[in-house]
Amino acid sequence: MFKEMLPALQCASALLGAGCSQEGADNSVQPLSFKTMLQTQQSGITSARQVPITSDSAWALLWREHTINNTPSPPAPAVDFTKKMVLGVFLGQRPNL
């Protein structure tokens, strides 16, 4: 499922919180809901990458790397990983035109 979503999300550097999808009673797939947690041009992550985060420890590491250039570093938004996940999408460094 992530491989299908990633090309559509590569257009911006963003941290997204995604709700889980469920199959309905008729086996239809319910849509995912997304919330942009942070979008910035000042990320400490300089290479393009997409990162699914499913645990507090992985979230803390990614947030620390992402906000390394901020002093003081803002606290990471709270995420209940028993119900949600975070998908980090980073465009990477690009030359100014």
What is the average of the pLDDT values? 77
The number of strands is: 4
Strand order of the largest sheet: 2-1-4-3
Major sheet: 4 strands, antiparallel
Total count of domains: 1
Low-confidence stretches: 1-14, 17-21
Q: Count of helices? A: 2
Task: Characterize this entry briefly.
With 97 residues, this protein is of the alpha+beta class. The chain has helices at residues 2-9, 56-66, and strands spanning 14-19, 34-39, 49-53, 84-90.
Structural key phrases:
2 helices; 97 residues; four-stranded antiparallel sheet; alpha+beta; single chain; disordered N terminus
Structural commentary:
The chain is of the alpha+beta class and 97 residues long. The protein has one domain (2-90). The protein contains two helices and four strands. The protein has helices at 2-9, 56-66, and strands at residues 14-19, 34-39, 49-53, 84-90. A four-stranded antiparallel sheet has the order 2-1-4-3, sandwiched between helices. Residues 1-14 and 17-21 have low confidence and may be disordered.
